[in-house]
Amino acid sequence: MDKAELKKLIDVAAGREKADVVIKNAKVVNVFSGKIIEGSIAIVGEQFAGVGDYEGVEEIDAKGKYAIPGLIDSHIHIESSHLSPEEFGRLVVPLGTTTIIADPHEIVNVAGISGLNYMMNAAKNTALSVKFMLPSCVPATPFEHAGAIIDSQTMKGPIQFTNVLGLGEFMNFVGVINADDEVLNKLLVAKRFGKIIDGHAPAIKGKDLNAYSAVGIRGDHECSTVDELNDRLENGEYVILREGSACHDLPKLASAVNNTNSRRCLLCSDDRQPKTIFEAGHVNGHLKMCVELGIDAVTAIQMATINAAECWKLEGRGAIAPGYRADLVLMDDLTEFNASQTWIEGKLVAKDGEYLPEIKHIDAAMLTGSVNISGFSKDKLKMHLKSNRVKTIQILTGGIVTGNKIVEVKLDDEGEFIYDPAVDCVKIAIVERHHNTGNVACGFLSDYGIHTGALALTIAHDSHNVVAVGVNDDEIEAAVQAVKEQGGGIVLVRDGEVLERMPLPIGGLMTTQPGEEVAAQLEKMHKIATEELGVREGLDPFITLSFMSLPVIPELKITDVGLFDVTKFDFTSVEAD
Amino acid sequence: MDKAELKKLIDVAAGREKADVVIKNAKVVNVFSGKIIEGSIAIVGEQFAGVGDYEGVEEIDAKGKYAIPGLIDSHIHIESSHLSPEEFGRLVVPLGTTTIIADPHEIVNVAGISGLNYMMNAAKNTALSVKFMLPSCVPATPFEHAGAIIDSQTMKGPIQFTNVLGLGEFMNFVGVINADDEVLNKLLVAKRFGKIIDGHAPAIKGKDLNAYSAVGIRGDHECSTVDELNDRLENGEYVILREGSACHDLPKLASAVNNTNSRRCLLCSDDRQPKTIFEAGHVNGHLKMCVELGIDAVTAIQMATINAAECWKLEGRGAIAPGYRADLVLMDDLTEFNASQTWIEGKLVAKDGEYLPEIKHIDAAMLTGSVNISGFSKDKLKMHLKSNRVKTIQILTGGIVTGNKIVEVKLDDEGEFIYDPAVDCVKIAIVERHHNTGNVACGFLSDYGIHTGALALTIAHDSHNVVAVGVNDDEIEAAVQAVKEQGGGIVLVRDGEVLERMPLPIGGLMTTQPGEEVAAQLEKMHKIATEELGVREGLDPFITLSFMSLPVIPELKITDVGLFDVTKFDFTSVEAD
Fold it and tell me: What is the DSSP string of A412-452?
């Protein structure tokens, strides 16, 4: 802010000069007092000048709608929407989202710091304010091969970027609790530059949690019980109540929010697919859900505005008050939270559901061609099992935690799996796809439902290798080859033929296609996966699969190196005995 | 924090290694959840490792006392205690104060940045954590001569000091509202370096307040009504409820604190004299008063701990939680708030009222010899009045606001004042004492009560020239000469003889004498001023006088340049007609 801008701000606030814009006749939600004040909001440049009786060069009639500060999603991976940052902004800004705390963990696992740079540059093309966290755990564990390794040395440059708030969710909580040397190095990089360290530590408690909190963990979005929430909150962490496409924690946690602790409570999506956005909104959907769950509307708004701004040190954001950043939403009511106008930095950027700025995409060519698999054939899928009693990754509904279910499978003479329609168990393979290493690991997936064909995805948290499941090796091979040929994305295969596909050319994770088309295509493919391949009703076939390779979520998972027992935090044999 | 310290913190928190200290059997107040948790507090180095079942190299039994985070005074001028920073720390640490936000506005008005440097260096000798604000308005107004001028250019160096949080109370609120050029320059210095701007703007509201808040004012301690508090709070400022030796706002404001807004409420003293400290404590006294006024004890504790830490961006302070700075107080109860132990950065620094570290004073020689008056004699006190109807600075009780009372005084043939015992009105003089300018301004003081002799002080907000009052020019001259000869402080004179004195050699404001002696001497002098000189009962003779030269507090004041009408914000004649 230069002197002329500061002077103009004062002159307008003092009433000596007209505001650029005045939004008249609004019910202004004051997040500091909790009161709703009827009045006019004066905007000058990118800031609010004040609420009161002001005149503006432009005057807008809010027609008695509620004016609330722009909404903040406190933790999200844009990549999980499969949309480019520009397109993601186009979808969520009309819903009232004005700021997101984005952890580009997925694309950085694929493309390293180039992935971060792409996201930061792309984000400049959207009205949405995107603040970044530097992914802290790339790869997520030492038990897998991602496209990049971000070590403490690599972090020293990007952690200093102005738009990088700190280290993203520190998923290697075991490494923190054990005080692993390289973990300490990473933590010290953030501390040295005065940056935030965000958390991710499901289920731990007591002294383990104390050890984790003690390093200065700012927030955690992995609480799924009230006890977990209270433990983290009492340890001085912010708690981020999550409601996304994959994880639905908000209903389980809402009862924990009260007058004393709500200031330390935030809201986030983590992952938000376009279909969810179209059906349930974004942060406005969280607000609606909060109110339905019995949280006072203003308290819920605070969680999505001033509380988030405080947590993420976004000075002068999260409130409609003099000198604050002019991010606001006009809402029809405080129950449904339908947004009719969104203003960001003093500009009207969405009206009646329509995003107003021009859509421009930056060139993402540097992130295409990310599927690098050589020497793959169905021979790589052979398992030579010595026992037919196998540990299977068991799909459980309602989250991404899996069971470890012992299943008796049919084997041929060479110990190779033969699909049995009577047993809901198929082969799952992770095929390394970044550096042509030739790594392939196989295991079993139960209770997923598929009884014919195969699926393959280049979305496989967090290393984003190819995850493929199918009833036999021919089908899996066809699916892997198809997803490789299309340069990443999702394919459905039956009898060696592609039934349907969604290319995701940007790192195998994202596309510049409109969200509506992505949602429609995913829905179509979901239907085929369910109706034709047999994936269980109630599961999202793709999200579900994409988490089967994440070796930090209990109980059993698989990486390109092998089957992983998260409880023991080590590899394990496929055979049960 | 280096790697070994971080590792040890984790190892202790995780329970693998013994803590340095464990405080067992405590009722730990959790400022995040509001709950009181019985348990043991583990400390390692300067931080808390956690609350739980820990073992320590040293183990202390808290005997069921309440453990609360160390208390924070959010705005104080140490100088107003007349004590050195080292001695101030000795008095308040045993009461549970562990951090103060000090604005060395008084000494900087006398000695410029040398005064700041002295305070910062002296503060290193106390266990108390002293965070500084860079005085923003030196001199307070253009209508007086202080010992130094701190302009925006001068600020650029010190604003960057690590221990300087930002610009101190921006008292020139008129300059902000009018967007004065040099005010803008100062504000931009703070903004450029990402520093806080603290506020001070009594009584303004509406658009004036919006203009003031809009520049990013962080907090204001000048609210004296609930409306003022609510207005500032809704404008996004923190409000600092003040209870000091001179100003008593807390009782007037307590009813405004509620569940929604308390997070934005803090506590401060502004000025705290040793007598007040001995009688009413420090921040622990604020807590006691809060509870008496109906504020929930934990809410009050939050105001003095985590809320203050958030406002002043003191990361990792203000709570008993893993990784937080190990500042805590053991309190006997949550009603009287008698502190039995104070811990700062993991060290026991006070026990049963006794300050434990060694008391060392830095050499303050560079700040002595601050009374530089040449060419002063009683001739300078002549007024040559043309009318006997004069405006007088009228003492009002309960604050530092004064009236503007027209009084008919007796004059001799040359228009010089003759004291009339029937009229409570005496002469007041401000004698410039920094740069031998020879400036002297005279006016009248009513309802102060003095009927014989004179007083002179080198404490005269904010320029700290000599303020003297007396029944005639001989007495005033004697008092000014005496206070000059002793190098600053306070003198009481009758019949040209010093009745009692308190030397304040450090800048004419402070002494290294023990607080007990200062309090006793002030009490003795108070008694003499009241009983022998006639100062009205119920007034503090010295504090009252020291504010008569502050031209930002209504209604009538006097500087070394002349009588000042604060309402009109300009000089005014002494004669009423």
Answer: -TTS-EE--TTS-EEEEEEE--SS----EEEEEEESS---S
